[in-house]
Amino acid sequence: MPAVVNVMVRPAVEADLDGIIAVGHRTWPTTYEPIAGADFVAMGLAKWWSAEAIRPLIARGRVTVAEVDGVVVGVVAAGPHDGRLVLWKLYVLPEYQGRGIGARLLERVVEGARGLYPEIRAAYLDGHLSAQGFYAHKGFVEVERERGSGGLPDNIWMTRPVAAG
User: Fold this and answer.
1) Does a structural domain hold residue 143?
2) Does 165 fall in a domain?
3) Parent domain of 96
4) What is the mean pLDDT of the segment spanning 148-157?
5) Could you tell me the maximum CA-CA distance found in the chain, to the nearest angstrom?
6) Are strands 141-146 and 119-125 parallel, antiparallel or unpaired?
7) What is 61-98 written as a DSSP string?
């Protein structure tokens, strides 16, 4: 699939709120229902993809968006946790996946982390093969596995040095 040429990657602003939420609501069902079920998707959308959850992240400068022709098509949210920078969200609309947008969003986070954090951490649910492959391709290695409960798959944590290429 060819790269999208007219992608703008920039810090999110309040006006992006609905577009950011839409990315979550469009990506989560197809991503997580097959591996974690509809109840997990409903809980995650309500907890992590609501205006109440996203608005403070935008205000703190922790969200970056990718837009094409004025439409938010990808989002990354990162923030400090235990001396590391953690990717809390990295999602791209299905029709834009495989075109380098996720890579550009990750690159922006890495650029902002240089000199501030020694490493970046990210997690994915066991069974989310595209996330596993993406992170491995970008230099992340598995460092921890949190056992899933209530029938949910394990949460797999990966890390990479900020200085990695």
Assistant:
1) no
2) no
3) 7-118
4) 90
5) 43
6) unpaired
7) T-EEEEEETTEEEEEEEEEEETTEEEEEEEEE-GGGTT
